[in-house]
Structures are given as C-alpha cells and as structure tokens.
Hints:
By secondary structure, this protein is an alpha/beta fold. The chain folds into 3 domains: 7-55, lambda repressor-like DNA-binding domains (434 Repressor (Amino-terminal Domain)), CATH 1.10.260; 62-153, Rossmann fold (3-Layer(aba) Sandwich), CATH 3.40.50; 158-289, Response regulator (Rossmann fold), CATH 3.40.50. It contains 11 helices and 10 strands. The chain has helices spanning 7-14, 18-26, 33-46, 52-59, 77-89, 103-116, 163-174, 190-206, 220-228, 244-257, 290-306, and strands at 64-70, 93-99, 121-124, 142-145, 179-184, 209-215, 237-240, 265-268, 285-288, 318-321. Strands 2-1-3-4 form a 4-stranded parallel sheet. Strands 6-5-7-8 form a 4-stranded parallel sheet, with helices on both faces. It has a two-stranded antiparallel ribbon with strand order 9-10. Helix 1 (7-14) crosses helix 2 (18-26). One of its GO terms (molecular function) is transcription cis-regulatory region binding. This is DNA-binding LacI/PurR family transcriptional regulator. Residues 5-59 form the HTH lacI-type domain. It comes from Microbacterium natoriense. Keywords: DNA-binding, Repressor, Transcription, Transcription regulation.
Amino acid sequence: MQKRPTSRDVARLAGVSQSTVSFVYTGRDGVAPATRERVLQAASELNYRPNLAARAMRTQRTGRLAVVFPVSAPNPLSMLRGATLAAEKAGYVLEILSLPDNRDERAERVEELIDGGQYEGFLSFTPLPQRILNLSREAGPVVLWASAFDDEMHATGVFTEAQPIVVMMERLVELGHRRFLHITGPLDFPSAVARRDAYLATVERLGLDSIAVIEGDWTSEVGLEVVRSLPEKTAPFALIAPNDSVAIGAMRAARLRGWSMPGDMSVTGWDDIGTSAFLVPSLTSVVQDRALVGEHSMRRLIAAVRGEEEPEKPGEVHRVVWRESIGAPSA
Length: 331
C-alpha cells in the first residue's frame, strides 16, 4: 500500500520547514503569500490532506467549513464546484448542508450548527438574519452570506449585473438596428428587473424605437407566442430575450413565419445553455461564470476564518458570446 504523504513530505517538496506547512494549514500569520502558494502547490502535487483530528486538538480548529442553502433550492452546482475547489485548495473539508426553506427555521438550524462547534465557517447562498452574520472568529465561527440568491432562490448581487444587455444592444445598433423588442423574465426576479431597466435606459440614451417590453417567463413557449403574434410589418427588428430558452422559442416562431435570421429578426439570449451554439443560426448569449463567484465567496470565507485580508473581487463574471443570430437588418 502506498504511504500516505505527510507534512514532512510537503515541506521537503516546497523547500520550507515542517512548521511552515503547519502554519499554512492552521492559518497562522507571518507566512508570505508566495510561500503559502508554494506549500499548497506541493500539497496538491502529493495529494496531501492534513490530519484534521490532530489539528483540532492542537489548535481548536476543525478544518471543516459548510455551505448552506434551502432544501427546495435548485442545486447551484457551478457555484458549489467553485466553492469546493477553493476549500480543498486551502486544505479544508467542505460539507454541503440542505436546510429548511423557511428563513427563520433555517436561521435556527444554523445557530444550532454554530453552537455545535464542528465548523470553522459557514457560507450561505441565501440571506440569514444579521445577528448570525459574523466575519470575525473572535465571536465564534465565521458566517458569510454570498449575496447570490434571495429567500426564493432568485439571483441577486453580482448575478443581477445587466451590462451585457447594453453591450449587445450597442453592437446591434452598430450593425444597423434601430427597432428593438424586449421580453422580460418574471418581474419578481431582480435579474429580470435589472435587464429590463438596462434595456429601457439604452433605448432612451441611443434614441431607439422600442416596439414593446413584454413581461414573460423563462420558457420557450413565451418566446414562441410573442413572435408568432407580432404583426408582419414588425420585421426587421432585434429581440432581446431574457434567457436562451425564450430566445429558442422566438427563433422557432420566426422560422415558421418564414422570417430570416438575422436579417428579419436578430435575437440575443442569456445563460449560454449547451444547445445554443448548435442552433441554426447559433445563438448570441451571455455566460455567467457562477463557479468563479462560488470560488470567490469561499476564498472570502477562508480569509475571514484565518484573519487574512479579503481577496480581490473576481474579474469577468459575465461574458458575451457572439454568434450568428445577430447581424445587419434586411433592407
């Protein structure tokens, strides 16, 4: 059986003392960032995992962190993936805990977990009462809200950034479009409101003709029905859809009407789902790097647990993927 790597092996590969390896994994001050990175890289190469039980006895730290979210929440896999990788890289065990949907019951359960002393920190994807949120180990385990979703698991925070709508509309104007139509998502979603507001502000700023702003949902059916019901004289125009599913329904309706794309109807989506690149025409869409947001949130938690400086905000969370569904309007 292959011998399990030890902190001595990590120290030898990283070119540091064994105590430095220990300081890195217990969050002690005084370790230079370059040295810390070298230790973590060596640990990764050796597949080293610290002895959490021994660490807890020596330092009163468990080496365990938790991510919490409601039971009924759609599983935010991308964010969890980013958070998990960040925790593992820093030498922590991460546990995913599904808690009650009711906010008060969820808060009560988190307080029980805090009192249990099993975790050094908690990352919540949904809001918690202010009395629980705590970014200092002096008051017990660190509890951080990632500001990613509200109590209904509607996207909030960085996920409501609507600048890509502006970027796509400006590009369509450069291609010759002056007439636009926007289907929104349900307006109880902060992201749908933000994209609608960005659309209206861009229409006003650039002096564009807005055919309509139509509240819809996130389904292909709404895109199909809206485009199918438009007067024939509507084309050519550009449709700003709230997501790829709505855009796909709109594209089908345009095809059934005999409208060319992008000549009669240019269309943009959001989310860049797997099939969007393979449509005819392929769909211009927006990528949200949720894994990056999950990673950054976990790095913030770890920094607070260790008493370190908060990491810099992530760079490009949203990115427009330009494809064939937008182009110059027909003459």
